[in-house]
Amino acid sequence: MRLLFDQNLSWRLNRALADLYPQSVHVRDVDLATADDAVVWDYARSNGLTILTKDADFHQRSFLFGAPPRVIWIRRGNCSTDDVINLLRQRRGAIAAFDEDSESAFLVLA
Fold first, then answer.
1. Smallest Cα–Cα separation from 71: which of 5, 11, 19?
2. I need a surface site. Which of 9, 52, 76, 99 has the fewest CB within 10 A?
3. What is the mean pLDDT of the chain?
């Protein structure tokens, strides 16, 4: 699974999780750091990326437009980058199952 880390997540995630999610990118790496959600959505769809975000707006977009792209929504409030890294490592089984299920468009991690 290739992830597109949203602006509300640290750019460090890309490097810290490269062993599990190779070829993933952060929005700042593809000149989308200040882009609105529609542009990020289109980029993810065009490039076969799953959006990883803490932004509820992508939850709404997923229900309105469906996949692609697929969305993983982290619902953890204020938490550190290390907390997010640990969450994504601990839930890698659920993320892999989500990736394999072609019917699923949205995953919540809490």
1. 5
2. 76
3. 94
